[in-house]
Amino acid sequence: MLTIETHRMLLTEAAETEIDTILAMERHPENRDFIWMGTEAEHRGEIHDPDCLLLLFLRREDRAVLGYALCCIDRKSHRFEVRRIVTQEKGQGYGREALKALIRYAFTQLDTHRLWLDVYPDNLRGIRLYESLGMHQDGVLRQNYLSDRGYLDQIIYSLLRSEYTAMESRFQEG
Fold first, then answer.
1. Are 11 and 69 in contact (CB under 8 A)?
2. pLDDT digits 0-9 by tens, 67-92
């Protein structure tokens, strides 16, 4: 079982018994407007898909669930997609710590050429995080996702292997 360690957390593969916890995080009022919400069946499929990583963020000291990420790997094109990343305790740096660990893992443990994600334009906290880590804004998929709020744009951010290598120290612990 994959476990990615950070200074304060363990990012570990989710089990089917933890799907209800993931669903609750997705539906929480502070998260639901900023992510696509999955179903129980979809999350079960992600857990069993060898090209998906559904990871829980656990606090090292007490194993409390702090968040989760869903990542998908395209092995043919060497792409790593951060499809969802959610933290329960906002403003504590857990999202930054987890994303840095995922980026490090993608580029140092997998044969990743391009890491990417999308974000809704009103997710200012996420946009600030991605830009602070040197991610490149590739473009906007206009009115690409129909949500309860209507059609939403999706901004695409990416990081290439060469960019990661040039600023690798930005992704180290501390």
1. yes
2. 999 999 999 999 999 999 999 999 99
